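pls ignore typos typing on phone
magnesium ion + seq
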Amino acid sequence: MNDQLTLMTIVLGIIHSGIRLATPYLYAAIGETFSQRSGVLNLGVEGVMLMGSFFGFYAVYQTGNPWLGLLAALVVGLLMGLIMGVVSITLKAEQGISGIGMYMFGLGLSSLLFKTMVGSVEGVEGFSELRFCVTDTLCLADVPILGDIFFNHSIVTYGAFALVPLAWWILNKTTWGLKVRAAGQNPEAVDSLGVNVDAVRYVSVMVGSALAGVAGASLSISLLGIFQENMTNGMGFTAVALVYFGSWRPYGVLVGALLFSGVNALQLWVQVLKLNIPSDVAVMLPYLLTIVALALPFRRSMQPAALTKPFERGEN
Amino acid sequence: MTPDAKLLPSGLPRIESMEMRGIVKKFPGVLACDHVNFDVKAGEIHALLGENGAGKSTLMKILYGLYHPEEGEIILNGLPVEINSPTDSLNHGIGMIHQHFMLVDTLTVAENVALGLKSTREPRMDLDVVSARIRELAVKYGLKVDPNALVSKLAVGERQRVEIVKALYRGAALLVLDEPTAVLTPQEVEELFHIFRQMAADGHALIFISHKLDEIFALTDRVTVLRDGKAVGSTLTSQINKAGLAAMMVGREVSLSRERPDVTVGKVRLSLKGINAFNADGQQILKEINLEVRSGEIVGVAGISGNGQRPLAETVAGLQPVASGTVELDGQLVTGLPPARMFKAGLSYIPEERMHDGVVKDFSVAENLILQDHIHAPFSKGIFLDFKFIAKHAQRLIQAFNVKTPSRETLVKNLSGGNIQKLILARELARGPRVLIAAQPTRGVDIGATEYIHAQLLKGRAEGLATLLISEDLDEVKAMSDRIAVLFEGRIMGIVTSDEVSTEQLGLMMAGEAAAV
Ligand SMILES: Nc1ncnc2c1ncn2[C@@H]1O[C@H](COP(=O)(O)OP(=O)(O)OP(=O)(O)O)[C@@H](O)[C@H]1O
Ligand SMILES: [Mg+2]
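k done
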């Protein structure tokens, strides 16, 4: 009896934290999907996340208002996207390298600002779980099993999941999405129809980067309520990998994000339960999964043909 | 005149006249347009003719706003206009069909048409509305297009129709057609001409570029000839003949007929026996192919495009896996070997898709001339390239084959289409091959260069080269080949002696309706 209960708790725990942990991956990877569909590989997601994470945290730390934190992260993301745009679209720099530059910049600056403006690890009261209470004592979150899985998350997590159908709709059903898809595939054709390729790419990169900022903030002001140096610890790079994993499609990215955060949650429990698996192996698990998934050959054919290629009219 | 006389059937205003005056455009090392004057009127089809690299596409890209001229002005309906980008030209009612397709492969036909247009229900797309309009246009002009088809699944002829629908959809009071027929079959060309004539009758102004003189005479009212960036003459099409036009274009007499001198045929250099091959979808694309080409012989391959020409060429080049059968090059069994081994066995290959398969666009002319042979002497010493020799080699071939390029270091993507073709030919022939596969070697190539390429093929023949010439141009196949193999649905319908077969007979065989006589 007791054994069964524990098993149940563990499985529930894994599902619940799997959904929670998917939050930052979803924001970052859906954002990167826009960027890449328009033809720009933004490898700087990790750096943008760190900046978003810090500024989100700092705004809440100063004002106590989590919404201001979210806004701060969004704006910082937007600005970093603008920089990435100038470097990779206007100046036509090599995208992989400029992305790495953005990462180093974000990592360094967020650490520096944290040390000078905060100093030590402090907690903040960010977004809390919604719990969906009908009365003071009756909450949907308390419904057995389902409650914990579906009704016990913060608004930020729900936002991440709502983003998936929204992104799908924008990409596939709007005139804007059509321009984004075309710009990543054949920018010359787009240009020949009087559409400004650079403008399409700027907006896509900036939206993507703003979402990466939010992804960072989701860690610091929703999931954890703290900021630490380098707290994203590779999540941004994983998000880029998830875009490939999901074949540049929002629902594919969703599957990848859930799979990844699920394995991640499992890995945490493996450590918590002190199972007889070296913890290093457990930590490696999700990354191994990513590498295997990326090696599947059929995904590559879905890659936007003009990804990483700056657009230039033949004239110059 | 009533005011509605000034409108097109689409309700958009006509462009009564368009004039380009004193256009000058320079590229590094080239004066692409040198004070060019050009004009077109509503209801008229005006041909723009000129050798490869004469500046035709450049002039039209200036009109369309893709390039910016150093000097000169554009006058629409009597008023000077600024055209800085395609947005401007589209707003003025100017449309352009480019020399290379401007389609997004991964999108549907309707999506390609809708791209960049305002929808009736922003921000959502209105593909149903777009599709309905496409179908209307399709009926009006007798164009076969399926709005829901994915562009990547379409054949070249269908793609060209999509380009035309794109232009018609936007109104295109003035439509520029930059070599729209280069990749089409004669039947498809006839269909297109029907549309163009109807458009002109409706009051559109059309500018038509082609290297095929027959097409100029069949379609256009007026013709202007460009040479080395200068407009050297302009006349009513009815007042000039082919020879006169050719001479105006090249600046000398051009021989339009081909003489095949007698050559003694030698031993078998290329032999295909019982070849069967399948594509990725499992469809059989080559069926029981048996074919021999001897030293000193040109064997033509005729057929409507898509009937197995490309797989046939690629089988010999080692790019197409075969299910059964054997390929022999110069007596060596080479079935299934990679291209490098084929080249080593004495093969040269001029691929049909020159931009994609024939050159590395971002490499220089000199580098493209040593793509296969850079790894061994005389182009390299040990692990190092011998740049001095490579430069000398490039210089020699540029001169010998008359490739028009500012320098040997120019990137190939900046050459005109016909000069890229000459470059490939130069590379392949200079390798001293024993077997040559030439797929569409004169497609998009001007008449002067065509004459030159044909002369080179005949010279190779005289020197004992075995040539397989794949072409959709029946006149070319008939004039150049000793024997002709006709392909239909991946099968050889028959092999005939070219001097004994009529064009009609060939046509029937190509349609799969008659076997060899
Ligand atoms: N983007 C470019 N950069 C540099 N040089 C160019 C560029 N575009 C064209 N040129 C050069 O300008 C000249 C005119 O080229 P253009 O493409 O207009 O020729 P064309 O008459 O259309 O020839 P074709 O019949 O082969 O298409 C050529 O010498 C070409 O090499
Ligand atoms: Mg041209």
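The two ends of chain B are 61 Å apart (CA to CA). The CA atoms of residues 191 and 271 of chain B lie 38 Å apart. more later
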